[in-house]
Amino acid sequence: xxxxxxxxxxxxxxxxxxxxxxxxxxxxxxxxxxxxxxxxxxxxxxxxxxxxxxxxxxxxxxxxxxxxxxxxxxxxxxxxxxxxxxxxxxxxxxxxxxxxxxxxxxxxxxxxxxxxxxxxxxxxxxxxxxxxxxxxxxxxxxxxxxxxxxxxxxxxxxxxxxxxxxxxxxxxxxxxxxxxxxxxxxxxxxxxxxxxxxxxxxxxxxxxxxxxxxxxxxxxxxxxxxxxxxxxxxxxxxxxxxxxxxxxxxxxxxxxxxxxxxxxxxxxxxxxxxxxxxxxxxxxxxxxxxxxxxxxxxxxxxxxxxxxxxxxxxxxxxxxxxxxxxxxxxxxxxxxxxxxxxxxxxxxxxxxxxxxxxxxxxxxxxxxxxxxxxxxxxxxxxxxxxxxxxxxxxxxxxxxxxxxxxxxxxxxxxxxxxxxxxxxxxxx
Length: 428
Known about the structure:
Elements: H1 4-29, H2 31-37, H3 42-58, H4 60-70, H5 72-92, H6 96-119, H7 121-124, H8 130-140, H9 143-157, H10 161-182, H11 199-211, H12 213-244, H13 249-276, H14 281-301, H15 308-318, H16 321-335, H17 341-369, H18 375-381, H19 385-409, H20 417-426
Domain Major facilitator superfamily (MFS) profile: 9-404
Transmembrane segments: 7-23, 43-67, 74-100, 106-127, 139-158, 164-183, 217-238, 250-271, 283-302, 308-332, 344-370, 376-398
Subcellular location: Cell membrane
């Protein structure tokens, strides 16, 4: 456990996820190019990503069920090949229907990848390392966004659209080959896993996972923390920075890179906190939501263009969302038995991506109604955030109370915040 072989397996899974994030976010840096290539309005352009996210979110629970039945290796390899096919199709597309079908394939392949990579951590590493490795998987995976923002964008604005997306497709094929060669669900000699569940057992597991308050606590956690940074990096960040704030395209790409870099630094810190203070995880999450809402409020209250330092501060705060969302998967892991981990993680992962597609669609709709990519239109469009933040915060508070009630009823000591603070002071 924790051997060099374990880290090799994790690294290959991480590689597949990095390439998957590249495929997922590639359309974000190509947004304005896509608008010109396909003669797409803001609403139609947002529809590309909304459809991709819709497919991703809709497949999360089925992907979790398939994961429990067929294993991580099969799903990660299948996902990589599906995304590669989608990117190759997009590279050659000149009409909207083919481009839309391409993003559907990317969304479908993406849905299989992350939860499958996470599922093997418990088999290869000690439990105490899993929260930090979960954070590292999620955050290092965002290096794929850097690959979109820098080299892919350079190819897009140099050789052009087709070479850029064919290159992305080639990386997908290479990652699938690496997964088939190296990736494994468990160490050699591990006890055989449980038999594949019957359809009745699948439905029972899905029902049990949903009725577990800890699973829904994870869902609302993922919803509240993940969507703002995802929408920013996936589609609307570059158009907003360039057309809404007058930032140069090169500077916008650097800001997307900063978004990833800060998240990578914050991830291990959040993971360590989660491992050491499991009953205080929700306070970390609610703090991230509150800080993100406050920073957007400050930026939107000021007439554009706002100072560059404030946009940098906004990106730094948005970067805390992904590591905050990783806490959601720790809820899924700790509140559900191993036999339904995939299903629980799939349910949790629906939260943030459903919120992301709703906000992406909302921003595109508002921009279309207010005249397109103008600073004033963007200023109004970003306000669609607030409804989702409020819903997520309420869901977290309610589900936290129910989860703690169930733990206490089962005989688990759950200290209140006052008791926790008192104990911490006494131990110093």
